[in-house]
Amino acid sequence: MKSYLTNVTRVKIAAVMLSSGAMMSSMNLEGLYGAILLASCVLVLPTPFAFAVGQGTIVPLLSTHPILFLIAELGITGLLAAPLFRRYRTGKTLVIASAWSLFFGALVVIVTWTRGQHYTLVATLVGFLLLTMYGLHRYELVQLGLVEGEDHAQ
Amino acid sequence: MRITRRLLASLCAGVVLAVFTLLLSQPLFLFGVVGIGVWILTHQYQFVRTLQQLEAETTVSQTVSPQRVVTDEHTYVTFTIECPAVHAETIRIQLKPPAALTGFDSELVRDLQSGEENQFQFSASSPVAGRHSFDPPTLHVISEAGLFRESFDVKTDRATIEVEPRRPRDIHVGEGGDRLTIAAGEHEASHGRRSNEPEEIREYQPGDPANRIDWKATARLDSAFVREFEARGDRRTTLLFDHSTSMMTGPEGETQLDYAREVALALVSYAAENEDTIGLTTVDENGLTETIRAGATSEQYRRIRTQLQDLSSTRTEPNPRRDFRRGADTNRNHSDLLDRKDQFSETLKPFFEAQAYVSTFAEMPLFESVREHAALQLRDAWLVIFTSNVRAAEVRETVKLARQEAGHVSIFLTPTVLYEHSEIVDIEAAYSAYTDFEMFRRDLASMEDVSAFEIGPRERLEMILQSSDRNRGTRT
To answer: DSSP states of B66-134 as a string?
Structure first.
């Protein structure tokens, strides 16, 4: 329990404080409700669900306040990224995670900037994500020699 | 790589944000989709690296001790798994012993501690003889955050276990602990039918057949010489095999009957090599169970071998069709006579009293079998008896009767003390019992034309004799 509080809750508390603080800084009632909802979900739900709820709260409330939006995003993103930084101390995993983040982020920016349709944007993003996941799956099968007819890559 | 419910739920969270993007026309939600997507991909990539590390660095050692056992004998199987330190929520190993081995859980799955040596030991046995191999174990891994799982076989040397059927081993045949040595070879007789083996040449005598003239020797020695052929005797052997319950002491497959059977089969093989005439008679508590008349054909030898191999202990229910118990009738006649007081009864009474001793043994199957065969098959034959020392009086009388008729009697005894328990609890009592047996055996061997031998597991006999030597040395 002690290590859990030390490692996990500390990150969550920091994320809650950053994101909720940004929301409450909008100086309205919706911001307050949003902060309370965000805090509850972050402390109760598993990480991806807390992140999704946080996104669903932050975007409608702070989309018109870029700086507050960025601060809140920083907090909620830290909820996802901090455990990865803590566990995978080897640079390779973090570099790849960063590269993916930049790639998909750039993809979103490019499609938005070119005024592409939202459907196109969503389909492109989801398609690339699923394709990358499938590619990793096939790579893993080949590495473990679980695919018949494939050479075991050394 | 297989997905889990947690992964599906995480993907759903991303899909929900994507739907919000479309419904609210707000592309900023897509940063959430990107965040969840990158989070999943990062875990997936790290899981692939974890699997690669496990596949390359996990070592499994399967050892079996002892590696050679008999059926239903326990052996100890030890699994030692060294697992590298990796990031994974759960690492489990599924061990796959051969189906013939019993004593394992139905699903042999154990959790492993990564970065440590894990060891599991089991006791197992097999009711099936043969060579049994262990299949490579399977590693089941669940990633951190429980998003992915995978299973694969770990490469390892396959341990094997040899299970041998229970059968007599290291059979001792001897006298008083000394092993019997027999020089195998053809036996000769001074008379009998001639064979085709030339023995020597001698000078031609009038009356010798012309076809026996050795022309090479004649030309060389300038005088007529004939070939003298070696006379080979045809020894007639009769085996008398006791397969009553008195021969069933010992573990399954290593009973007195099993040991005696091996020696009997060796004698049959010896007779077959020398083309000797051999017959078989088997008896149990109820009397005669099978008779195979003496013969010297391959079919004969095969029949005798088959009959010996099919022998097993029989139950003690009396069989009226094979009831040799004439003693019952004799007793009835005897009691009738005793009640009468006439001259006829008085004359016959002494005769019945003398027969009482014989009639007692007439109820004994071994004795009765010899008496049945005496007139027909034992004349000048070699009678070989296989029995135990349980019914000593019957055995003694049987041997006495047999040597009157047969040319020579050999008796192979299976002393019960050598078969009683798997481990000797009271060595003094065991030695005392063996000493009593040895005195009985010597008593039989002291008779003219009688040889008496012991059959038993050599290891056990040596244990008894060595232990008694140590005790006698301690006392002196």
So the answer is: SSEEETT--EEEEEEEE------SEEEEEEE--TT-BSS-SS-EEE--TTSEEEEEEEEB-SS-EEEEP
- Asked if the peptide bond before residue B84 counts as cis, ω within 30 degrees of 0, the response is no
Give the CA dihedral B78, B84, B89, B95, nearest 10 degrees. Answer: -20
Burial B121-155 (b: 16+ CB within 10 A, else e): ebebbbeebeebebebbebbbbbbbbbbbbebbbe
Place of tokens 């590298």: B84
Note whether B44 contacts A136, CB cutoff 8 Å: yes
Q: Are B121 and B77 in contact (CB under 8 A)?
A: yes
Residue B194, pLDDT > 50, answer no
Distances (CA, A) of B461 to B236, B388, B441: 32, 16, 15
φ, ψ at B79 (rounded to 5°): -110, 125
Helix, strand, coil percent values for chain B (each to nearest 5): 40, 30, 30
Answer yes or no: pTM beyond 0.90. no
Question: Phi then psi for A153, rounded to 5 degrees?
Answer: -70, 130
Residues of B in contact with A80 (CB under 8 A): 35-36, 38-39
What sign results for the dihedral spanned by CA atoms B389, B383, B328, B357?
A: negative
Give the tens place of pLDDT for each residue, A28-76.
Answer: 788 888 888 888 888 788 888 889 988 888 888 888 888 888 888 888 8
Report yes or no: B285 and B316 within 8 Å, Cβ to Cβ: yes
Which residues are paired to B213 by β-bridges? B226
Higher pLDDT, A83 or B329: A83
DSSP H/E element including B140: strand B135-142
Tokens of B216: 């090479």
Chain A residues with CB within 8 Å of chain B CB: 46-49, 51-52, 55-56, 59-60, 63, 69, 73, 77, 80, 84, 87-88, 92-93, 96-97, 100-101, 104-105, 108, 112, 118-119, 121-122, 125-126, 129, 132-133, 136-137, 139-141, 143-144, 146
Sheet arrangement for strand B117-124: B59-65, B75-82, B117-124
Cα(B365)–Cα(B284) distance, integer angstroms: 7
Q: What per-residue string of b and e applies to B374-396 under the rule 16 or more CB within 10 Å gives b?
A: beebbeebbbbbbbbbbbeebbb
For every residue of A78-117, DSSP letters joined together read HHHHHHHHHH--SHHHHHHHHHHHHHHHHHHHHHHHTT--
Which residues pair with residue B411 across a beta bridge? B385, B452
- CA-only gyration radius of chain A, Å: 19
ipTM of the complex: 0.88
B86 to chain A nearest CA, in Å? 10
CA B168/CA B171 separation, integer angstroms: 7
Closest Cα in chain B to A62: B28
